[in-house]
Amino acid sequence: MYQDVLLHIGGKWRAAEGNKTLEILNPATEEVIGKLAHASKADLDEALDWAAKGFAVWRKMSAFERGKILRKTADILRERTPEIAKLMTQEQGKPLAEAKTELTVSADVIDWFAEEGRRAYGRVIPARTPGVYQLSVREPVGVVAGFTPWNFPVSQAVRKISAALAAGCAFILKGPEETPASCAELVRAYVDAGVPTGVVQIIFGVPAEISEHLIPHPTVRKISFTGSTPVGKHLAALAGKHMKRVTMELGGHAPAIVFDDADLDQAATVLAAAKFRNAGQVCVAPTRFLIQQGAYEPFLEKFIGKVQAIKLGNGLDEGTTMGPLANDRRVSAMESIIADAVSKGAKVRTGGKRAGNKGYFFEPTVLTDVTLEAKVMNEEPFGPLAAFMPFATYDEVVAEANRLDYGLASYAFTRNTRQAAALGADIEAGMVTINHNGLAMPETPFGGVKDSGYGSEGGAEGLEPYLVTKFVTQAGA
Ligand code: NAD
Fold it and tell me: Is the pLDDT of residue 1 over 90?
């Protein structure tokens, strides 16, 4: 059962000061399914006080003890996965199977950082004088303010919180107001596993008010944001003004390159799954389908076959493979991006419009004959839309792949190993996946370059943003 969602501040699950609330909608039915506590400035100040207290305790615990609590968190999340997945599907729309996978992978992320926190090694630097020890040690940066979006309510938050906690930091999370219950349940797993009071807290409210209060606050030493590039630039500027460290995981516009020599069946299967997962509301989703001339028609036909097999429906219904969009803003965005492309010469090969008259359902869509002037080739569509364009040569497709200011994920399919190696070097992106989809594993780096942001959220690199280096030099007394 979906229940009202509370704040977690100072070890208590509680309503906001003044009992202010926001409504939560189910995007498949447009019905109000619950209420969300809406934090005031006084609530934020209380969370900041508790975060400072929590940090003082947590940083003194050994990485070994912290790791034990994190591993217990992962076990709790696994046990509760069936119930939390249902909450996620009701508030976000994705099919139940996708919600369960998100939770399973999130538990693996916690386990990964539970271990990795024990490997925050420093160095002993050879000194110029006998009897002097020069140490480079890694310490937790302090209290972190994290801002996470509605597309992956648990997995966007878990990467930040787990890395921060493993490093010894305390975390205040501004969760996603439209998909709050599953994210709050993630926080409950850490709390129930025994993190000390104030180490993980969750608040909701007006995003701009919260970021403007938390980022400049002296208690907060680090900001981590996932969301759109314009908001990311705004928050990075605010953080810069107050000399706060920042991780930015922003938008993308992934090229999906298919060469004539590729295994077209495999490419169609992998790319259709990557495109329409979570109804395309994924920062690493392929968007620009750049297909070599000889493979263009056969690949398009195979891809359209996959698209037409997608079963659109309520994510709780058996057999649904794509749910509704998460909110009405995405429906109008899809309509306007498609209308713009068509006005500039594109053809709708399948889909192209809203489905049904209740819920934010949108047909999985393929556009061909798309021109570079169309918005879809320049702005992140963040929805179930694939734009096709043919290419002739390697140099031409690499130039197109690198044309935009985005640089998050990229996909390529070719049987030519020399060409595959060259793509790995030539594509300007934070992640390149060739002949399969191997992105976003707990143990591998995840992040972008250019306007897609900076900092990494996975792998050993994921711990770095939460650590600072201290130099200690000591001579005999
Ligand atoms: P939006 O730009 O209003 O918000 C994006 C995210 O930023 C949301 O989570 C929102 O709560 C947060 N946000 C907005 N203003 C903020 C502020 N001043 N301070 C702190 N947080 C703030 O757009 P939206 O309609 O919610 O999402 C649509 C766009 O956002 C998409 O087109 C996509 O580009 C981007 N997005 C990206 C990701 C991702 O995984 N990188 C996830 C969700 C949304």
Answer: no
